[in-house]
Structure formats: structure tokens, C-alpha cells
Amino acid sequence: MIQSTSKRKMLFGACSWLFLVAGVCAAEELKTLGIEEYLGRETVGSPVLSPDGRTAVFTVGTKDDWDGQRSTSLWLISTDGGAPRQLTNPVASDWDPRWSPDGTRIAFVSTRTEVPQVFAISLAGGEARLVTDTERGVDHFRWIDNGTLAFVTAEPRDEALVAAEEEAGGGFVVGTTATTSALWRQSIDDPKTAERLTDGSYFIDGIAVAPGGTHYALVTSPSSELYDFLTEGELRLVDRNGATLRVEQPGSALSDPEFSPDGSAFSVVASTIGFSIGDGLFVFDLDQSGGRNLTFDLDPTILESGWIDDETIGITTLRGTTSSVVAVPVGDSSPKTLLEPGLVFFGHSGPGPDGRMVFTASHGDRPTALMIHRAGEPVDDAKELYQPNPWLEERTLATTETIRYTSFDGVEIEAVLTLPVAPHPSKNAPLLVMPHGGPDGMSLDDFSFLPQIFAAQGLMVFEPNFRGGIGAGRELYAANRGRIGDVDYRDIMAGVDHLVETGRADSERLLVGGWSFGGTITNWIIGHTDRFRAAVSVAGVSNYVSRYGTSDVNHGEPARWEFGRLLTEDHEFFIRSSPISHLEGSSTPTLLMHGEEDRRVPVGQAQEMYRALRELGVETNLVLYPGAGHGIGDPRQFRDVVRRWIDWYLGHLPD
User: Fold this and answer.
1) What is the pTM (predicted TM-score) of this model?
2) What does the alpha-carbon distance between residue 276 and residue 252 come to, in Å, rounded to a whole number?
């Protein structure tokens, strides 16, 4: 349930497989994207417009070495363009910048101290200054007025529990290690004025502040456990003293609580079905229970939201394989597109007083950059303000396209196709089928590292948005529930057939592989067809029965959503739905890779798949990464994953 991009000379030999089959060694002719270059690249994010709309603050992430720790610092740039100015030094990591209402200061969270605290810096000059001084750090914060902040910090765990765990040599009772948190208020200039507002009996995952701090809207759950947040999350309205006035529960996985500028209403994003589609934008009057879903007919997947004025809320929503910004009226008028689909972007801010908004965006072979755009104008008019990696212009990058095809039952499916970096026609290239994660995910037409690195090796990468994913409405999102391995598998294979039949793919040069649910469906595919020359499964599920009791969230209500039932209600159904139950007759050489500390898909899933394939006589390898979770984020480990992934494919393709 609920993975971006850069390029250098080949790391896998003087000549890549691509050029060997062409009969020439052209590695020196193309400078393609390297793994270490990608891992060492600068990143840009979190743009926020100043109140007057003339300046944007944003973060830049840098590394001393490709395999080191990335530190983020704050930068400023005029919305009229020009050179950016570094505001803070990357001695630690600074993030979540927020302008004071008068635009004279910026507050942000930083790891300059032992635990993350809020710091503030004046635009008039000087060094950043510590604002909060909490024992367990700050999780969230907001300005109340020019001199006051609200912030959230974790509550201490029960002393008796901690003492019992020490006595037991670290032994603990499952379900007692999660924490709660509390809302505090303090002067920006004096940490000693910190005043606790809520009692700490629940966990706070998001906050919004009404003008002057008269009210707070909190996204809360019983504890810090993700499962609790997904299944029991609530929207809580509290008064200036922290007393709960009422609780609303419009859906699941609540996010982005916000107040209208005049404080008369507040909003939140929720999933009306499942736990990750974010299709509902709910608005509540301050003095009346119950809310209205403003986006039911729009049927979006909302990434973020924010009030533009007292009558309008702006949302970033996925649209096809790209995204857009839509102005949603609180009244009865129709939504209006502020930024039409065409780019893949996150973190939009605005529109400001002059109608312009800033965001980070990428598309195809256009790497992520900070951009500016005037609301309502064509997306092609969006201008680049800052590109953190100009050296990418010297690299040969793969181009992409969005294709559409008809699945087995007439439903149209979209997919992203990344073309190989090659001097020969793409139809001669091997086709790599790379399903997305989730299944509550989607493939976007953005500048994405894995497709780029595979394309640099001469592969054409096919990423289908099969049923069960987000970004195409509630109906498609719900279409594989209780049918995992059915419609999603057939949607994927219909796309493969389409590419073969239209001459774009060679039926003798098919590869498959993915991460998370992409690895899960890969495990399923190799049990249902022998059409693929090789498969790679990273962090994939093999057995839904054994995973049910070991995953952090995929049990209980999330399992009821995914499978339409609980394990105790229909044990045989979970057996039939498991890839490991369908491996008899499998012959596809399969590489399995997994993090040993994965909580979402515990490592036993890979071990079960490995044992089964070995006993069936299928060529298979299993690589485990100590200390790694679901994402395998350590740079050296990630590099190894990518290298092995490519080598496995190239070693199993026909001459």
C-alpha cells in the first residue's frame, strides 16, 4: 500500500549489451546516466511563496559523496527569475519552511540539534535561531501570528512499561511501543513560554491553525502506529485551549487539514474508499457538525490542498500519467483548472497575489526543476526557475510516451513507455515489463531513474497503470479488490500483447520485474506464463497467508479492502491468491532481492519464494540486505540492487 532521477558513463563495462548487438562499441559516443551520479545528485523541493508572491523559499539537498548522507538547506529565489540565494548552510538538514504572516521571517524544522527543533531566520539577515526546545523534538508546526507558533511533540512513553522492558532485557508487549503526542503553543522568541494545549491521549498527524489561534483542526489517531492512522484516523476540532469541540470522520487516511483565510471553515483530504486514493476534499463549517465532499463528481486523486481564498481551495491531483492543479469552489460553481495536465509535479504553492504559483516538476526526459506558472495559462508556458543538476544536459536521456490500449474486457488502460537510448529502431529492443507498487500506486510520465537506467542498457520499459492503482478514479482503483492476480495480471499481459502485435516488442525478448507490489505481481506472472526470459522481484509478496500475521498494515481492515474478506473468514481464498500457490511448472529464471528489516513485506516472503523455486528446479538467486527496510535506501545497497537487476537481465537475453 501505501519510489526519481539523473546520468554518466556506463558502469557495466566499456560496451553495453545494447551496442554489442549493434556490432559496434559506442559507449564513448553516449554519456548516459550512472547509478552513482543519480545517488549523488542535488534535489529540489518544498517550494513556498512569500505572502506578497515575490519570493519563493525552497529546499536543496546535497551530498559530499554519492554514498553519503544528503543534507537539505533553504534557498530563496525571486519569482521574476535570476540567481537563487542560499539562506541556510547544509550543516544539518533543514526542511518544512514556512513564512511568517508578515513575510519577514521563515521558520523551519532542522536537525542542527540532537532532535528536530523549529528554527527561525530573519529575511533582514543574521543566523538561524533556535525557537523550540523540546525533549523529543517537533513533529509538526504552524505560525499562529507573527510572534507565536503552534507545534506538536511526542509524549513520553509510560514509565512502568519502559521499566518493565528494561527488566525483561528489552522484551516488550506487542501493541505497547507506539506513542501519542500533544499540541503546544509558544512565543517565537522565548521557548520558556511553551504552553501545552492538549492532554496527550492521542497521536497528532497533522495540524491547521485558525487566524489568531482561535481554533485548531487536528488529524488524530489512537497512536503512532500506521495501522491505527489508516483505520481509526479522525479530524478533531479543538478550541484555543486545546479542548475538543467535536470529532469528524469523513473517510480514511486523512491529510492536509487547513482553515479558510477568515477562519469560518476548515477542510481535510480523505479517502472515501480504501486507504490511499485521497479522492475526497471535505469542508466543514466552524460552528456546524458534518461536512461536504466537494470533489465527489471530480473523482480525483488528491496529493495536496490549500485554500486560495475564502471561497476556493486549490488541489494537486493526478490526471492520467501526469498531474494538474484545480481550483475547487466551496459553493456551487464548477471547478476550474489552474494548471492543466502535462507535467508531473509536487509541492505547488499559490497562486499568489499576481496569480502565479511555484512547484517542482519533471516530465519524460526533463529532470526535476523548480518552476513557475501563471494560473490558467497553457502548461507549456511554465518557466524553469532553478535546475539543481544542469550537468544532466550533457547526458543522453531516454524519451517517454504515454500509450493506451484495450484490455481483455474492453477497458482502456494507460501506460508509460520509456524508449531505449539506442541508434537502432526501438522495436528491436528487449521489452521490460515493470509493474508499479501498491497496488495502490501508479506509473507517471516523469523523469524516473529506474526506467532511465534500464533504457541506457538498451531496454524499452513498459509501465502499465493496471486496475487497482490510483490516478484514474474510484472505479479503476476498486476494480481488483478481491481479485488480486486476476484483472491486474490480465491488464498487464494485454499490454504486452498489444506491443508485440503492433511490432514494438519482440516476443522472444521479454523481461519482467518490479518492486513491492511490482515484485508481487512478478511472482504471480512467473507462475502463470513462461513468456519471459528473466524476472526480478524486489520486496515482493509470495504468500498472503504467512504475510497476514507479519506485515505492519496488511491485515484487518486493509486486508478486507484488498481481498474483500479477512484471513479467518476464508483461509482458502488467501491461499489461492498467493503467487507461491501457482509455481508448479514455472521455468523463468528469477532473481529475488529483499531488505532483512522490511516490515511491510517481511523477509520471509522472499525466503519462501526462493525455497519453492529451488525445489522446482527453477534458476533463482536470493540477495538479502542487512538493516534494509522496504525501500532498501542505503546508497551502496541500492547501487547493488540496480547492478544485479541489470546483470540478471543481460545474462538471460538471447544473442
Assistant:
1) 0.92
2) 8
